[in-house]
Amino acid sequence: MNTAFSSNLRKQTLRSGMLLGTVSAMFFGTALAAQDTLVVGRSMDVNSLDPARAFCDTCQIYLTAVYEPLITLGADNQTLEPKLATSWSNNDDFTEFTFNLNPDAVFSDGSPVEASDVVWTFERLRNLKGSPSFLMDGTKSIEAIDAHTVKVTVDAPNSEFLNKVSAPYTGIVNAEAAMAGGAIGDETAATADGAEGWFLENSVGSGPFTLSKYAPEDELRLARNDSYYGPAPAFGEVVITQIQDSVSQAQALETGSIDIAMQIDADTAKSINNPDVTTSIVASFNFVYFAFMPGSEAMKDKLTPNVREALTLAVDYDGMLEFTVGGNGNKIAAPIPNGFPGTANLTPRSQDVEKSKAMLAEAGLGDGFEMEAVYPNDNVYGVDLNIMMQKLQQDFAQVGVEVKLKPVTYPVWREDMASGSADLTAVYYAPDYFGSGQYAAYFAMTPGSTWVKRAGYKSPETVVNEKEGEIYAAALAASGDQSVAKYEELAKEMMADNIIIPLVSPNLVLAYRSDITGVRYSACCNLPLAEIARK
Amino acid sequence: MLRYIIRRMLGVPFLLLGVASVAFILSQSTKGDPLSALVPERMMNNPEIVNAVKAQWGLDQPLPVRYVVYMKNLVQGDMGTSFNTRRPIARDIADRLPATLELVAAAMIIGTTLGMGIGLLSARFRYSIFDNAARGFALLGSSVPIFWSGLIMLYIFSVQLKWTPGTGRLDARTTPPEGGTGFYTIDALLAGDWPLFVEAASHLALPAFVLGWSVIGIVARLVRSSLLDALGQDYVRTARAKGASERVVLINHALRNALIPVLTVLGFTFAYLITGAVLTEAIFSWPGIGSYAVAAARSLDYPAIGGVTIVGATAFLLANLATDIAYAWANPRIKVGG
Lengths: 535, 338
Description:
The structure holds two protein chains of two kinds.
Chain A: H1 3-35, E1 37-42, H2 57-66, E2 71-73, E3 80-82, E4 85-90, E5 96-101, H3 115-127, E6 139-146, E7 149-154, H4 161-164, H5 175-180, H6 189-192, H7 196-199, E8 209-215, E9 219-224, E10 237-242, H8 246-255, E11 260-261, H9 266-271, E12 277-282, E13 287-292, H10 305-313, H11 317-325, E14 329-330, H12 353-362, E15 370-376, E16 379-380, E17 383-384, H13 385-397, E18 402-408, H14 410-419, E19 424-429, H15 437-443, H16 450-456, H17 466-477, H18 480-497, E20 500-506, E21 508-513, E22 516-517, E23 533-534
Parallel strand pairs in A: 1-10, 1-11, 15-18
Antiparallel strand pairs in A: 2-3, 4-5, 5-7, 6-7, 8-9, 9-10, 11-21, 12-21, 13-19, 13-20, 14-20, 16-17, 22-23
Chain B: H1 2-29, H2 47-57, H3 63-75, H4 89-124, H5 129-143, H6 146-160, H7 184-190, H8 194-231, H9 234-241, H10 246-276, H11 278-283, H12 289-298, H13 302-330
Helix pairs in contact in B: 1-3, 1-13, 4-5, 4-8, 4-10, 5-8, 6-8, 7-8, 8-10, 9-10, 10-13, 12-13
């Protein structure tokens, strides 16, 4: 054999071998990295990564992964379970709560989680006046009894306080590390705290993951917390990547670009016919509703309690469920989600057009009247509010009431709600924690509440229902079945107000690659990432 | 020429301040609750929270005071902090602009190359099957909405054929390169990371084609009509009479003259695409300036609206200048600067 040729052949063989080795290393390296990375696609709505300022669905996922509250909500979405606190107790009138911390718990920098961190976190949450500060409303004192015991005293009985501290926004922060980043916990926090930007680049929690990188409206990267004192999460890295709409999320899931798609609507889910993708439908605790505004200038003498009841009888609730989510949801009776305390025995409204017409005629409105509906031009939880309001427009037309639809951008809707210019509106609600109290605080017609101001506008007395405040206070002072009974009584009162009319609680589509396990919907935390693994 | 460019560049900051003023006043006069990105709806009933947020963001000050503060900061290079992202606007733009520029540059390369090629061949073989097919293709590119073509192409090439990867600039499992130019393809090449370059380029290909298709339509039709016009001119007839080949006539004589109107369009198309790539960015989850602008507008994020307006205005001013210079290059009879 020619020596030169032989030498060239050897060189080529060597090169080919090296190339093959490099390509193999690259391929297997990438494959291993892919195995160890979980990718979640969703339309990100992050407003902050500071636990005391954040308030969004993505925030719930992030905070649950990176910070830990004292208590968490179990997989049954009803039972409170230990997290940083191994046990807790309260006095008989629900004004004092004592938490015993897990002595093994450590923050991601290895320092122990102590009572002083809990005190500082809760005080900062209260004093910062951030979006989730309401969770600390009514706290009179927060004391460290010893290094691992915390006592919280509230100014009025509050049996729901334990539920509130299961919200991810109450996740305990490493006080020393956060203060070094500019965070302030005392009374000056609202004006002096300058740590919001710092929290976008740093995480100081005790959760199973830490913040690796955040690029707004692009991606949120988490890395496994190697100092985690509990069971290590299955994935070394989690990436939450921005994918705006349902169809794009489904396509990304089918190609394998992502492992979990979080906002696929029921129609799109039906179009997925891929053995590598699993979809399951679960009931959610979100709901969409419409609301009457009897205090608006045009509706002052029209939207009386009887007329409101008549109009609720005109609505085709079954048809609405079909029309908005193709039947993939549930009817809902009161503005408290199905499955929350006090809702088990409620009966959803039903349509009775003849009775509606008769009641309107009795009120002198047999010839009908006009209303203007102002609502956000949004698609939420798979419900297009435009479609929902078109259906409502049709239903009201049957009893002679003409609804003029005015979809607007969200900021404009907010301004209109404050100005009393709308007669009717439509919007949505998702829980901040497991508990019916948040719905009482927001939807009940108690003096000064959000919806009294909106619905009553300049005539709040026309919508106020004093009884609801008393029932709510009684529910907070009771526990167990007694509390549930009070919430049921409150729910029935709210139904009788006929101001807030829930229409649909859309189901949630859990869509993920078939080799993924542990995906579930949590009422407090949305998607607990640490429970997810690859088969 | 150099003096002309310097004079034009010196005027740019003043024009931008004027644009920023108009953007500030218009966005502040727009109907809507400015707190919608800052205070969740259900917290609006809590005056303590509302007042704390207003004070934090200076929204408790009257409009003239806010304007003076904004302009003072702007002159010092501070565009403010975004209501949405809670980060300095300059940083947001620095992070997102390279993504848009990379996408638009690739779309322009695709659009210009294919557009000119198609336009040239259409003119050369006018009324042939190729000409009719090419004109149909160009017409489709100009008329099919991007939200439709984007989704369909993604479905065909990514989901069904698996020729291209999914959405985003890179696979979500890949760690993006830090620093550099912000153009992932270029950064990967500079780092000698060939697999990363291939990944970045393959992610870029489909959105760039979708965006570039509209440019193909514009350029192809313009080149064809300009060339047909030029081919009828006396100097072309003279070139042919002197025995020049058809290729020489087409490329050396007719095309250079036909390029002048194309250059005008290309300059402004580039600037338009920078601010107008919104739909492509949304469909392909491309983290660029377009989607940032939409999010800012939807939530009345005044500082971000101002920042994006300045970027858009800068793009148009520079495109205008570049077009003038290109004009002079393409046609020596045109003098810039007077």
